[in-house]
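Homework help thread (please don't just give me the answer)

Our assignment gives two proteins as sequence + structure token strings and asks us to describe the second one. The first is just a warm-up. Here they are:
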Amino acid sequence: MPVKILMPALSPTMTEGTLAKWLVGEGDAVKSGDVIAEIETDKATMEVEAVEEGKLGKILVAEGTEGVAVNNVIALLLEEGEDDSALAGVDVSAAPAGNDGSTPSPASPTPTATPALAIAVPPAAPSSAAASGGRVVASPLARRMASQAGLDLAGVTGTGPSGRIIKADVEAALAGGGTPATATAGPSAPPAVAQAAPTTAEKLPFEPDFELESLSTIRKTIARRLTESKQQIPHFYLTVDCEIDKLLAMRKTLNDKADGTYKLSVNDMVIKATAIALRRVPKANASWTDEGVKLYKSVDISVAVAIEGGLITPVVRQADNKGLEAISSEIKSLSEKARDGKLGPEEYQGGTFSISNLGMYGIKEFSAVINPPQACILAVGAGTQQPVVKDGVLAVATVMSCTLSADHRAVDGAIGAEYLSAFKRLIEDPLSMLL
């Protein structure tokens, strides 16, 4: 009996994904551990490995297909000794929900007079990118590639399901110097329709002209999660000003001694101070549940990183036990993987406390939205020279404003204030971080 290859759950909250690309074709030999496909989730593009070996007998879900439910059958693998005749009687209904708690969409009924494989929908003939009411229909991966290359998808012909633009179409268009990609169609395929310019959404009275940018999966997820955060979590905010002249001096000294082997940033030192302060005030390292407050035993810092089309928070595990050089190296590696869409779920999930730093953009102070289920997020502003009074004498110091957003259900004002006090002491006396 052929082996069913299912749409995997690549994270605990994943219910569906986009089958971005097949890396093997029908008839290809597959070994256990071979990477056979790329799956796009709301956070990243993940590689899927085969768990059995054999020959890929039938692909049931075409490249570029979005909204494929977890546990749906995406392909069939023929085992040793089986040929294509074994495919005819296979039931390709969705498998039961797994331990991830996801619920696949109901499988379509299979007519008794037709082989089970008949429910697989073959790719539609190529059509223009504006086939859906003038809106460019493309996979998230294709949109990201086009955006990075400066390619206008309005001039690209899609060869994916229902005329969707997929990665191969973008690659073909770029190879042709940016001209619309052309697909090889069978004798019965209709000629490609001339591409029309994308239309805008309905205009409001007196509203100026605009171009509607389609929402990516990650942007939809961010919108949903942050809306839920502001609606369901009672935020409160505490701000503290930290003088960072000693921190800047120590950073320069350490970088000078590194001889180019590493280069510490202010953010690396903020991560370290944040983690040690959580170790000293463990009640801030928490999250709320209806059964009680979770007090985490590990200090795992989520660091907000801007990526194309949104934001992601890779996690520095046990940051309180790591040195500055290790933190710096790890956050650089995680940031690069995040921007390339290559983070694994274990690299961006499970953090206990978040940091969002906009200081590099010149933002002096801001309040961040809590990243559920965590109870706290620290918003870090830019260090600016300001007048300060020391021992009754006016002086100038480099001051950095940091604002803690806290979930009042899990962290009350006194705990938040105690945490910021510990953080401020570490930032203003950075040598104490090394003890």
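The one we have to describe:
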Amino acid sequence: MNKTLNLLIQFGLVGFTATGFLLTALKLPQYGLVANLAGQVFWLYSSYRAWRDAEQIGIFIVSVCVTLILAFGVVNYWWGA
């Protein structure tokens, strides 16, 4: 994999996830969910690569489940009743 792409993925993974947790801790869960959902793009890619390269399918399954949960949370906060 391209070294620059790998670096971008690692920064995106940590940056968006940490920002999401920080926003949630600051009592802004609706924004924390959005930041974490954006970070899931990087988690899904990384976990897919781990599945394909090292047969770590559990990581990929958990990433898909967390993505669906975060998507539900975003819909609940932003378009829910």
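TA reply:
I won't write it for you, but here's a hint about the kind of observation we're looking for: Helices lie at 3-25, 29-54, 57-79.
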